[in-house]
Design a protein that fits this description.
Elements: H1 10-13, H2 17-20, E1 26-29, E2 33-39, E3 46-51, E4 60-63, E5 65-66, E6 71-77, E7 84-89, E8 93-95, E9 102-103, E10 110-111, E11 138-141, H3 143-147, E12 169-170, E13 173-174, H4 177-183, E14 187-190, E15 194-196, E16 218-224, H5 237-251, E17 255-260, H6 272-276, H7 305-321, E18 326-329, H8 337-350, E19 355-358, E20 385-387, H9 389-396, H10 414-421, E21 441-443, H11 453-460, H12 467-479, E22 484-488, H13 508-511, H14 516-520, H15 522-537, H16 546-552, E23 553-555, E24 563-570, E25 573-580, E26 586-588, H17 590-597, E27 602-607, E28 610-615, E29 622-624, E30 628-634
Parallel strand pairs: 11-14, 11-22, 14-17, 17-18, 18-19, 19-20, 20-21, 21-22
Antiparallel strand pairs: 1-2, 2-6, 3-4, 3-7, 5-6, 7-8, 7-10, 9-10, 12-13, 15-16, 23-24, 24-25, 25-30, 26-29, 27-28, 27-30
Helix pairs in contact: 7-8, 9-10, 12-15
């Protein structure tokens, strides 16, 4: 009967990814014909609705034919490039195609597109950056936040193309992509670029403050977000603009990491996935309700064959078609580890230097078996990374409250800090981390979530008049540790979100980068830039294997808890890092220092004011300024 729900049979339920991975889905375009294929195992009938204008009420309707594994298909002869289409399920429900490469404004319709015609000049031929994983220095940023404020000097404010505009400035300091270039990071991690549903893509009738969202509410996983396009009414604009943005980063030798949200869909019962395949794409409770491990209403059932295929196909599409260099997974614990392993294998075929990492946690309980959840430790020797909340909280305390960390004087965190410095490997019997390899840890003190570091310190310090010194301590710990250093936009010049701990839909007045902050905090910016330059110059930080780190890293023992002193040594150089987190100046006994470093020449190359070059008198005690990170070259100094 028309409209009667079909139960998914055992044949389809038991399909494996390997059995269906080569099935083509979506609108498969050529100039002579377009083949439409969609997985819809629970529908009785499925029709294709198509027209040359998404506003047309009358559209052509074609009945599709189903095969034995629940895929409906129809072929239309002729050139359908630019046509708008939807699927009509059981003569009742109209939905977009989950495999849409682009869409009409506000995702009302899917659009057939010839992606070959969307490449900017030279895009297909240009080589991607060869930034190795062990060299990664990651900078998280939002397309909109970074250029939307009037102080940015950007013409295409809040758009993909805003990040292609080079030469922008505010009262003499660089803004936009030039700020990223000046910092010297290797990778930018962009908040969601795919099509999300929570904003009106035509923002011409809004004040930007009233039309904002981070984008963690996915609608179409293969299509770029239309609100970031210069013309959201042109379905090709979002593709062309996104590619041009990535091309600009690549031309400046900056790799692009894409933030992806495969753990849930924004819509539940009325999502295109659930309408097309009821109870298949999402984890369901016995009573027919959605499981809610994500905390936002549902969670995606990644372990099912066609769900796994959707995730992997989407990742590969972004890597192949847009040349994206890496992926950051939101609530990664909800994606089964087998899917991640297969995805990584397929992505490495496209780009051997691709990196993936994510959040090793979920919001609430999930029925996904524990041994399939990507919690901290599950990444061991699996070639992907996770965010290191142990190190994060040891550095500055809890994420949103008044709790203090090491930099604010909780020196009992010292062992946790040293474990983080060692890349969170099993360094010794005292310093035992969760990683087999330092590449598995993302070292950070904040990201887009929770209080940004400036706001956290402002509420947790007893006296915040010298807040810059604490910021510098936090930055020094992140950049002078093994693993991947990660900072969030504006950390480098004291960006504040006015204590908004969850600004996902707060106005731009809260979220946007105000470039006068850079002008007013240029000392912090230069310090961060120097730290990045310093890290790049110390080849030892490229080491990721636990055995190599144990050979090259030594901590000074039996010193005050407010001091962390460690030696880095390889064939290419020897260094001493001395961190004084105390509010007081500290002296290091010369005899004790000589026994530890065993060299006849010491030169300070980095201190509280950044890169410097000062020869140290070997006959005197070593003085460490209060709340300071100091780096010394041991032996003869070349370069830094």
């Amino acid at each position: 009967m028309i409209g009667t729900k079909i139960k998914i049979g055992d044949r389809i339920k038991n399909l494996t990814y390997d059995e269906i991975k080569d099935e083509k889905l979506g609108a498969i375009y050529s100039k002579d014909k377009t083949i439409f294929r969609v997985f819809s195992p629970t529908s009785v009938t499925l029709d294709l609705l198509i027209s040359d204008d998404y506003l047309k009420v009358r559209r052509n309707k074609y009945q599709m034919v189903r095969n034995e594994i629940g895929i409906y298909e129809i072929t239309l002869e002729g050139d359908y490039n630019g046509y708008y289409y939807n699927y009509l399920v059981d003569n009742k429900y109209e939905v977009t195609d989950p495999y849409s490469f682009t869409a009409s404004i506000n995702s009302l319709s899917s659009v057939v597109v010839d992606v070959k015609e969307t490449d900017p000049s030279g895009f297909r031929e240009e080589k991607i950056p060869q930034n190795l994983e062990e060299d990664a220095i990651i900078y998280e940023m939002s397309v909109k936040n970074y250029t939307a404020d009037r102080s940015s000097g950007i013409k295409n404010k809040g758009k993909f193309l805003g990040l292609t505009e080079e030469g922008s400035s505010f009262e003499g300091v660089s803004t936009g992509i030039d700020n990223v270039k000046e910092l010297g990071v290797s990778h930018v991690q962009l908040l969601p670029l795919y099509d999300f549903i929570s904003v009106d893509e035509d923002d011409s009738c809004f004040f930007d403050d009233d039309n904002y969202n981070w984008g963690y509410d996915p609608e179409l996983y293969f299509a770029p977000e239309g609100s970031y396009a210069t013309d959201p009414y042109d379905p090709t604009s979002r593709i062309k603009d996104a590619k041009k943005m990535i091309q600009t980063f690549h031309r400046n030798n900056i790799s692009v990491v894409m933030d992806v949200v495969y753990n849930h869909t924004f819509k539940s019962y009325d999502s295109n996935l659930h309408t097309l395949a009821r109870g298949y794409y999402h984890r369901m409770n016995e009573d027919g309700s959605f499981s809610n491990g994500s905390g936002v209403g549902n969670e995606v059932k990644s372990e099912n064959a066609f769900t796994r295929k959707l995730i992997i196909d989407s990742l590969c599409h972004w890597a192949r078609e847009y040349k994206v260099d890496g992926f950051r997974f939101d609530l990664m614990a909800l994606i089964d580890i087998d899917t991640i392993k297969i995805a990584l294998r397929e992505l490495k075929k496209i780009n051997p230097n691709i990196i993936i990492y994510g959040e090793p946690w979920m919001a609430f309980y999930s029925p996904l078996p524990l041994d399939k959840q990507i919690l901290k430790g599950a990444q061991r020797s699996n070639s992907f990374g996770v965010f290191n909340d142990d190190f994060r909280d040891a550095i500055k305390g809890d994420v949103n409250g008044y709790e203090k960390g090491y930099i604010q004087g909780i020196f009992s965190n010292k062992i946790k800090i040293e474990t983080g410095i060692a890349g969170s490997i099993h360094y010794d019997d005292k310093r035992i981390g969760f990683a087999d390899d330092a590449n598995e840890t993302i070292n950070y003190f904040n990201c887009h979530d929770n209080l940004i570091i400036y706001d956290k310190l402002a509420i947790s310090l007893n006296d915040s008049r010298d807040i810059d010194s604490y910021i510098k301590l936090a930055l020094g710990l992140i950049f002078l540790s093994f693993g991947k250093p990660f900072i969030y936009e504006g950390n480098e010049f004291n960006h504040s979100k006015n204590n908004d701990a969850n600004s996902y839909r707060s106005p731009l007045s809260i979220n946007s980068i105000k470039w006068e902050d850079k002008l007013n905090n240029i000392d912090i910016f230069n310090y961060t830039k120097d730290l990045i330059k310093l890290r790049k110059s110390i080849d030892i930080f490229k080491m990721t294997k636990a055995s190599d780190i144990r050979k090259s890293l030594a901590f000074m023992e039996n010193i005050e808890e407010s001091l962390i002193i460690y030696k880095l040594e390889s064939k290419k150089g020897k260094y001493l890092v001395a961190i004084n987190a105390s509010v007081d100046e500290k002296l290091i006994d010369r005899k004790k220092l000589d026994e530890f470093v065993q060299v006849n020449k010491i030169s300070k190359i980095f201190a509280k004011r950044g890169i410097s070059k000062i020869d140290i008198n070997l006959e005197e005690d070593l003085i460490l300024e209060n709340k300071s990170v100091n780096v010394f070259k041991l032996g003869e100094v070349n370069g830094l």
